[in-house]
Write the structure tokens for this entry.
Amino acid sequence: MRVIDVSQITEAIAKLCIEANYELPDDVYQALKEALEKEKSPVGKAVLSMILENAELARQRVAPICQDCGLAVVFLEIGQEVHFTGGSLKEAIYEGVRKGYKEGYLRKSTCHPFTRANVGDNTPPVIHYDIVPGDKVRIVVAPKGGGSENMSMVTMLKPADGLEGVIETVVNRVKEAGGNPCPPIIVGVGVGGTFERSAFLAKKALLRPVGKPNPDVELAKVEQEILERINKLGIGPMGWGGTVTALAVHFEMEPVHIASLPCAVNINCHVARHKEIII
Amino acid sequence: MGDVIRLTTPLTDEDILKLKAGDNVLISGVIYTGRDAAHKRMIEALEKGEELPFDVKGQIIYYVGPSPARPGRPVGAAGPTTSYRMNPYAPKLIALGLKGMIGKGKMSQEVKEHCQKYKAVYFGAVGGCGALLSQRIKKAEIIAYEDLGPEAVRRLEVEDFPVIVVYDAHGGDLEEMGIKEYRVEG
Ligand code: SF4
């Protein structure tokens, strides 16, 4: 058994919230650079150059990459041999979010659903716990912007709709979203289990390094096909026309109920933030 | 891309009429911020016959909720938010003389028509470029609804703030043009 004081979790979460909002991950940066090469539209190229320049400025701590510093989505993989002491793990995570968003000059974006009153400290985060073998704790913080999250969806297709139905759903969703989610986007697709499991898979798909294909060759082909269809839509960077609408499509699949074909599409903007640490 | 057009606020009908969808524009002068919650309050104020926090005539509203300013800076990251959420409010403000909105994504047909009827323009700024755009903001001051935090109405002084014309006052639409040009059938 390994003992970990929860204060360590608070510190780690705070640091990850700040780093995620100022340092665009290298894989995303590289994908954007390649997009700049590929993009045919001059307007689109200008947008991509600006995005790359912005990433540099944020890295120098001029300001966060985006003013929407996201709702903090936290993934925790906890080794089953770990024992937490020093207080509530959940409270420690909340405290980490409070601290990170305050000390990092990050925008607090959580509010009451109807009065719209700002909570003031960006809590509550969305936390996904997973218990895994071992004595380590892996934490991923993925702040998620509202603009792209608003363009996401879960739909319950009929089994007869099949793979083609899923592909249609994804492509149509991206088409309707147009410039709203700040393209070039990364598209997470989740098909599996129940309603909420699909949504979770689609979210998790966004954590994969950009463009890293699904290890299943057939699924990797589907990812490629959806990506090609999306990039034929002509939406382009910021929706102002162009050949690069999406940087990648990540598809995650699991078995479903015999009556169902749940399909989730989680769209991420080019500010695809995620930072991780292993304690 | 064509030449860059420089504009200084407040804007006149003449300024607006020479703009075409796809034009790159650098804006200097004063612009105002407002997003969902501030718009809701402004429209409620109008319905009650109250004054708006600023006179919208000739002005530009930037759909943005900046992040907190780091010490020594006037404002934090300040890129555009998605504009369609302001669809219910924008036409009323355009009818009152608002000349421009800055945001991202599509707006409604009604907004487009109001741009033509009242000579206004919908500008797009690059989303997710908050750090870069913040450098073009020289001063920021909250002028109303401070309790709304990031959504408070701010008066910004900008210099060469880069935008592109998305809807012009002649019915031009950059998104439509762009998609038509780059869409591949099949
Ligand atoms: S969609 Fe992403 S890049 Fe665009 S404003 Fe929101 S968080 Fe920023």
